[in-house]
Amino acid sequence: MTAAARTIAFTGLPDSAEERRAHLVWGGVLQTVRGPVPCRVADLSRGGARLSVAADIAVGQAVTLVVTGIGTFRGAVIWADTGELGLAFAAPANATAA
């Protein structure tokens, strides 16, 4: 995906609770207090993300999601289920590449 396509995917997204999400499957790394955890990004929006992970990460834990070519997102785990978790970003995501 080109840088221009990434920008189009996130620029102008509504800030409402019903905001659009970019449905994708990209590899990433979740920086946690225990160290880096490889992950797959399933959904990404201005406010958060849904990830697939092979590690137990506690709800409430502060984390940083790094998606190469997309950006770095600081936030916290807001829900966790076997193999998946949801993040809420500390600040709205933007389209700047990492």
Any guess at the CATH architecture of the domain at 37-92? Answer: Beta Barrel
Order of strands side by side in the largest beta sheet?
Answer: 1-2-3-6-5-4
User: Mean pLDDT across all residues, rounded?
Assistant: 79
User: Which CATH class of the domain at 37-92 is shown?
Assistant: Mainly Beta
> With helices defined by DSSP (H or I, 4 residues minimum), what is the helix count?
1
| Structural category | mainly beta
Terminal CA distance:
14 Å
Shape: globular
- CATH fold-level name of the domain at 37-92: Elongation Factor Tu (Ef-tu), domain 3
Radius of gyration: 13 Å
What can be said about the biggest beta sheet?
6 strands, antiparallel, barrel
Note the beta-strand portion.
Answer: over 45%
- The share of residues in helices is under 10%
In N-to-C order, the SSE pattern is HEEEEEE
Total strands: the figure is 6
Low-confidence regions: 1-14
What would you say this structure looks like, in words?
- The structure is a single chain.
- The protein has 98 residues and is mainly beta.
- Helix content is 8%, strand content 51%.
- The chain contains one helix and six strands; from the N terminus they run H-E-E-E-E-E-E.
- A six-stranded antiparallel barrel has the order 1-2-3-6-5-4.
- The longest helix is centred in the first third of the chain and has 8 residues, at 3-10.
- The chain is globular, with a radius of gyration of 13 Å.
- Residues 1-14 have low confidence and may be disordered.
Compile the SSE list and pairings:
Elements: H1 3-10, E1 22-32, E2 35-44, E3 48-53, E4 62-67, E5 71-81, E6 84-89
Antiparallel strand pairs: 1-2, 1-4, 2-3, 3-6, 4-5, 5-6
